[in-house]
């Protein structure tokens, strides 16, 4: 029951309404108040942690005020809302972002200084919110920023993991995983202990016919777990709109104790039940581009989907509209197949709980959902075993079978003679055990399916989803090329560059209309501008060099070419090719005379990224990189000409230091494997060039910035299949330079060679699935072109300016507007519009 204050008493509320600070004085007052009351400290024991906490709470209070207004505005406007369902939100830090988005960073800086603190040190206290693995989770975070900044009425729904992605430590060159216990103190969330949803698991389905002969299904028995909402405010940039990210946390249904067990003396097992319930939201699965079919993962998925849908349906029901209007009020986007059970859950709610007819319900469901595919890698495509689902979600499995039946019947009517087609597109794979193919379920249950870059969207239409294009027609399949938020990835990460750009493009408007970067083209030959541009890049490299020194102890020369590859470690992303290239460079330097060496461009090869804990090959790659570094970095013949660095524990806040410091970054996946990539966009936006393959968004980046401004190499996606076939069935001769690299590894130059046998073996003996040898020569040659080009600094700087000027397309604002128009059919809700009269603001 929702309580509302009667009209005569509202004046008192209005008089005392919370407004949040605006002035520096109010900010300081709020910080001191939080230190002295919320944190129960004083000026005599206020360290940087406490100052961070108090500053964050002051901003949180301000955000929640705007959040309340935004929610009221959206409720009264009564329009369509977007719900972004994602198992991952890789948010990073919140304080710096909140200060910049609400435009009060200077106020906070001066205020903190007044109280005796440096703002950079305070920002640095924050623990990253790392509720994601990589690209998919960070994309969700960029989308939330754009949705709020563009004033879309939108909510994110996810899980409040107690443990985010693990912390990576490097011990003797090996990756060691340490749990990320991040919720110890998190000032950015609001627990909503009044927003609790019961979630059912296991049990049975009882079917009967009611008085009028209608089939009724009742899901009963099993166990109940509670979902508790935690809200994270999402401030838009330069707008009062503050949206909501709702994260669900699991809790035992019986509260503190199971009293029956407690009374019967079984205290231990009642505590165990409680812990089992809390396990559901305990930990983020640490795999990127891989699904392993674990029951707990399926539990997470249903728990989160059921709680979110309950919330969405409850909100809709308050409008008292007819069910047929549901898709005009609600758009739900499935971030990959992880939330696909939402399709089934909504159908279940409509037919079992709300009494709609199947067809009527299914029309509503398919109009509501859109599905985004993020990968074509077969090992990442989700499949759930039928027996597992039968046990955990018996009613959902029945509904899936029924969806499949009607779908296959329609396919049969349309293509009566194609028996093979039916088994190919069946949502149930007839294997042992049978499996539910989640991507097929997502396609059948949505009105639009999109890929995340042009090449990728074309590939899904011609390969994994080919049959579905034939069945549903090509219009159901579309492309929305990914984007990144320029607020975090330019303004926040690279404030000096942002300021320089603002000074030439008429203010900070480019942060909301990134195409304004075009103005910079005028300055590609402007001497003064280029000098400032180069100084900023150098300063960013000095900053990274300091970070390298403090974290690894290695001194690197900021004047050297910084060559960076940071992303999850994966064979398809080919960090192994990069490190083999580094070894090749090392051998080349060793074979040179001192005279020859003087002509070389010094380089620092920087790597970073986590390997999934169970991904042995990826861990071996990390080991090799570290061992090569250990040898090269102390070799007197080499000196500054080559340094090899592995940065520990790559995450969002470290990316904010790393991205602005590249001269070249590597995006070198086997063509056709990287759906889009988004760090490629971040690096170019910060004035770095790319060495990359014709894959994912690299292709569109090339089209936008011009092929003279990018170093492309390697085989094309269309040739990959034939090359792989030739490896397996033809004679497979390795690239001679690569052979030399392997010989050096086998000699033991980089430590015990047996440790790296799997790595070289995958290429020599097991078909070189990722075409490392096929692309190696072209890679080495292109690296030589990079060296040459870098020698002409004047031209290099012009290339980077030209590239930044042409990056407007890759704003996540453009991307979100495309989703809004072509998939969601939602409109922004301007905060300037007057709200209903008498509304408690
Ligand atoms: C692509 N993650 C990038 C990015 O679209 C692309 C997480 C859990 C389980 C299985 N897989 C995942 C991904 O599939 C993923 O991160 N995909 C990435 O999505 C955003 O830019 O190319 O690899």
CATH architecture of the largest domain: 3-Layer(aba) Sandwich
The level 1 CATH classification of the largest domain is Alpha Beta
Name given to the CATH homologous superfamily of the largest domain: Glycogen Phosphorylase B
Ligands bound to this protein structure:
N-[oxo(pyridin-2-ylamino)acetyl]-beta-D-glucopyranosylamine
Fraction of helical residues: 40-55%
Shape: globular
Q: DSSP strand (E) fraction? A: 15-25%
**Strand order within the widest beta sheet:** 7-10-11-4-1-12-13-17-18
Give an account of the 3D structure.
- This protein is of the alpha/beta class.
- The chain has three domains: 17-77 and 94-127, no CATH class; 82-92 and 128-187 and 236-244 and 286-479, Glycogen Phosphorylase B (Rossmann fold, 3-Layer(aba) Sandwich), CATH 3.40.50.2000; 524-717 and 776-801, Glycogen Phosphorylase B (Rossmann fold, 3-Layer(aba) Sandwich), CATH 3.40.50.
- It has 34 helices and 24 strands.
- The chain has a nine-stranded mixed beta sheet with strand order 7-10-11-4-1-12-13-17-18, sandwiched between helices. The protein has a six-stranded parallel beta sheet with strand order 21-20-19-22-23-24, sandwiched between helices.
- The relative contact order is 0.10.
- Residues 133-136, 139, 287-291, 336, 374-375, 380, 452, 482, 674-678, 696 line the site of N-[oxo(pyridin-2-ylamino)acetyl]-beta-D-glucopyranosylamine (475).
- This is Alpha-1,4 glucan phosphorylase.
- Its EC number is 2.4.1.1.
- Keywords: Allosteric enzyme, Carbohydrate metabolism, Glycosyltransferase, Pyridoxal phosphate, Transferase.
- It catalyses: [(1->4)-alpha-D-glucosyl](n) + phosphate = [(1->4)-alpha-D-glucosyl](n-1) + alpha-D-glucose 1-phosphate.
